[in-house]
Design goal:
Layout (H helix, E strand, L loop, with lengths): L6 H13 L2 H8 L3 H15 L4 E4 L2 E4 L1 H29 L2 E6 L1 H18 L4 E6 L13 E5 L8 E14 L1 H8 L5 H7 L2 E4 L6 H7 L10 E4 L2 H9 L4 E5 L4 H6 L3 E2 L6 E11 L7 H27 L4 E3 L3
Parallel strand pairs: 3-4, 3-5, 7-8, 7-9, 11-12
Antiparallel strand pairs: 1-2, 5-11, 6-9, 6-10, 6-11
Length: about 325
């Protein structure tokens, strides 16, 4: 099976071709001249071609050697440019992060103006993606991930605690209340709107509250919380989802708790995730502290909203 020549051999070849002499290449590479000559010989044998014409003490490229030299020069230029770009990025005030899509749009996005106003010289990039970063292959400083915090080998710190409860539009609640007098009856008749990626699904929540529903009751399922919440706003059913993501709708009254007596579950939902080494970077530290401050203010706001409506909170470990 054919194997590509080693990068080391190509490096030696490119240096010899550029200088025209083995000795000068050896000096540049900090190796012996014999080591360089051996690498060139091995490369020629591997490729089955002659790369240099030996004329007295000077080397000149053959047609095949010229072709390889042009390709090698182009490749090394790309590598140097990439290295420079990465180096400049790490030295500049630039932070690159990835966040869960609904969280990025509904929670992080509206708050970023505060951070940017405080740090106007920073460059900022946010990728809204459900896929976690591969920190070994991608240039990413940190993730803001939704989940349980169980990502081995990475620094994981819970920063946003979520409150989960059934919510619906006021009109939908009024419609249900015409024939229902208890929370159990409300849920028995309601169309349930499922966000399939939330930590707790309707089945588990209903079992936790010992509520049974008929198996033929209709339901709606979406793979994004934003979609599920919007359908509840549209009056299509009751959504069991994040008060963090539905914060604006709760405060403006387009969503209301289905039944305060059902309570709310509190759990660590959004996490700062990165390799441990990234935590020493100044930019990551500053941004992480800002996120924590914003999360603290947000939680106090949600707590006040729930307390005003007599909704009890239960801590839950996902």
């Amino acid at each position: 099976m054919y194997r590509d020549p080693s990068l080391n051999a190509i490096t030696y070849f490119e240096s010899v071709a550029r200088h025209g002499r083995v000795a000068r290449a050896a000096e540049e590479l900090h190796v012996s001249a014999s080591a360089v000559s051996q690498q060139i010989k091995n490369l020629e044998e591997h490729l089955g071609i002659t790369l240099f014409r030996r004329e007295k003490r000077q080397l000149s490229l053959t047609a095949e050697g010229e072709q390889l030299y042009m390709a090698a020069t182009s490749a090394f230029t790309l590598l140097r440019d990439a290295r420079t770009s990465i180096s400049r990025q790490r030295e500049s005030n630039q932070i690159i992060m990835r966040a869960s899509p609904s969280f990025a749009v509904r929670w992080l996005g509206p708050r970023l103006s505060h951070f940017i106003a405080a740090h106007p010289s920073w460059d900022f990039r946010v990728d809204a993606s459900p896929d976690p970063s591969n920190f070994e292959r991608e240039v990413v400083d940190l993730d803001l991930r939704y989940g349980r915090g169980n990502w081995p080998g990475l620094h994981c710190e819970a920063v946003v605690y979520d409150y989960l409860m059934p919510m619906c539009s006021p009109d939908y609640l009024a419609e249900l209340s015409q024939t229902c007098t208890s929370a159990e009856q409300l849920l028995g008749r309601a169309r349930l709107v499922d966000s399939v990626k939330t930590t707790m699904q309707w089945d588990n929540w209903l079992a936790r509250h010992r509520i049974q529903r008929r198996s033929d009751t209709s339901a709606l399922r979406f793979d994004r919380s934003s979609m599920a919440i919007q359908q509840a706003v549209n009056g299509l059913g009751v959504v069991l989802d994040s008060t963090t993501l539905a914060r604006d709708e709760l405060l403006d009254g387009t969503l209301v708790p289905l039944a305060p007596e059902l309570g709310a579950l509190r759990f660590p939902a959004y996490w700062i995730v990165s390799p441990a080494r990234h935590q020493s970077r100044h930019l990551v530290k500053v941004f992480s502290e800002w996120i924590k401050d914003e999360a603290s203010r947000h939680e106090q706001e949600i707590k006040a909203y729930l307390a005003k409506r007599g909704i009890e909170v239960t801590d839950h470990e996902p």
